[in-house]
Amino acid sequence: MIARVRAGQPEAYAELVRAHTGIALRAAAALGAGPDAEDVVQQAFVKAYCALGRFRDGAAFRPWLLSIVANETRNTVRAAARRTTLAGREAALVGAEPVIPESADPAVATLETERRAALLAALEQLSEEHRLVVTYRYLLEMDERETAEALGWPRGTVKSRLNRALRRLRRLLPEGGAPA
């Protein structure tokens, strides 16, 4: 697909955009873009297109794109000189993907909402690198190799930081608040 884009076939890039917009929006929202998530993703796709000449042949596009989304999210948050609140992140995540099916039992739905809020509050307390590795690995469901590629870290670093982040999350979560 990348070869087709490089060969001047714009419809090939449109296919890449369609295939990766959902995960890019989830990444931007999870990393704190809030209401600017769509703008961040659009800018990330523009930057990715401009940087295709530097894209390594044979590399996976998704981790490369998500690293651009993460950088663009950081730039947007810094430029706006604001910290997105926990409530803003929760609203962005809920808007990006339904968390609880409509058919769920109200008691179960309430418990899941409380557990999710506790998890997001605990994530807020992690360092940026620990929050990033947990977000990529679990919230964005990337495997270890993709997480390492997206963050530009060796796999061993991903493993160790993820291990430390999960231990810290366990200490921060109320008893029974850990996600199943």
From TrEMBL:
Every RNA polymerase sigma-70 region domain range: 21-83
Domain RNA polymerase sigma factor 70 region 4 type: 117-169
Entry keywords, A to Z: DNA-binding, Sigma factor, Transcription, Transcription regulation
Domain of life: Bacteria
Pfam families: Sigma70_r2, Sigma70_r4_2
Family under the similarity heading: Belongs to the sigma-70 factor family. ECF subfamily.
Protein known as: RNA polymerase sigma factor
Species of provenance: Streptomyces werraensis
